[in-house]
Amino acid sequence: MGFGAWMVMGLAVLAGLATSVVPARAADGETLERIHNRGVLVCGLRSGVSGISFTDPQGHLDGFLVDVCRAFAAATLGSAQAIRVVRLPDKPQEFEAVEKHEVDVALTTTTWTFSRDLSFDVEFLLPLLYDGQGFAILSDGPPPPLDRLGPQTVCVKSPTTTVRNLEDHIRQADRPWTIRTFKTFDEALQAFLAHECGLLTTDRTVLVTSLAGYREAVGIHIYPDVISREPLTPYIARGDRNWYDVTRWILHAIILADAKGVTAADVQAGRIPDDPELDRMLGHAGNAARNLGLPDDWALQVLAQVGNYGEIFDRNLGKPYGMERGLNQPWTRGGMLYAPLFR
């Protein structure tokens, strides 16, 4: 058999292997149809992250990303309670679960990166939390600035972008620090609280919420410094353009309502400003919503049942933990959250 024939045969075998291991992509409109048929929206979440996705002592599921899941359900099914939660494994298995359509949307504290965008058959939507990797230190009084710390052992979960950021920072800034890795963030946290590490690092939002109950009793300081950009972004399986459009415009709607100051109470009381763009978003957009497969009042249901972005943030992160919104403000107030035109 000639070289050309061998090449053709080899390519055919590789193609067969690829089709046997790569899940089939969802067809356009298939995801929304599946959601309607089952009557619930399935969200992939990670448990145990205070303020983000957690179960309270009464067994009630709560958190910022849980409320975003409810917003998707309110828009697609008319009920914010029509959700089912699947606990996603750690990365990279998290991405594989999405690729296999085990969930309709993944809502985890996952950073949108170049390699993840190109290595997995998933589609990132738009950043929902602009975060950065921060550090906590055990200290009874004001600690030295981060850039003046001497030798330290740093607790960190691996494998994550967090440990790679830390490695880059230690090398570039020539820090006399040693990295100690753990399979879970909780293991890293417990080692930190047991004084096995001087520093704990992860997304600053997670530090603020996870350490809230310990800060006064133990003496913990969270530095304002961050060493990375962490655009935490929901994502879906690649292939269903309709579902990609639906999920993105639901997120744009809660951002636009926040920018224009329209709250759940306003919608429930019928106090809608005389604003042509809001009028289109809340039910008078012509055929646009129907082309997506959504009812005319999809955005109205989202705001009435869940609220705008600012309400979701304040309810889960602002009021309980005193977290400032920072970059997570709409563009009208100097933040990074920006909605295209509802026109």
Explain how this protein is built:
The protein has 343 residues and is α/β, with parallel strands linked by helices. The chain folds into two domains: 30-130 and 232-333, D-Maltodextrin-Binding Protein, domain 2, CATH 3.40.190.10; 133-227, 3-Layer(aba) Sandwich (D-Maltodextrin-Binding Protein, domain 2), CATH 3.40.190. Helix content is 43%, strand content 16%. The protein has 15 helices and 14 strands. The chain has helices spanning 3-21, 30-38, 64-77, 93-99, 114-119, 161-173, 185-193, 204-210, 215-219, 241-259, 264-269, 276-281, 288-292, 298-305, 309-321, and strands at 41-45, 54-55, 61-62, 83-87, 105-107, 122-124, 129-131, 133-138, 152-157, 177-182, 199-203, 220-222, 230-232, 235-237. Strands 10-9-11-8-12 form a five-stranded mixed sheet, with helices on both faces. The chain has a three-stranded parallel sheet with strand order 4-1-5. It has a two-stranded antiparallel ribbon with strand order 2-3.
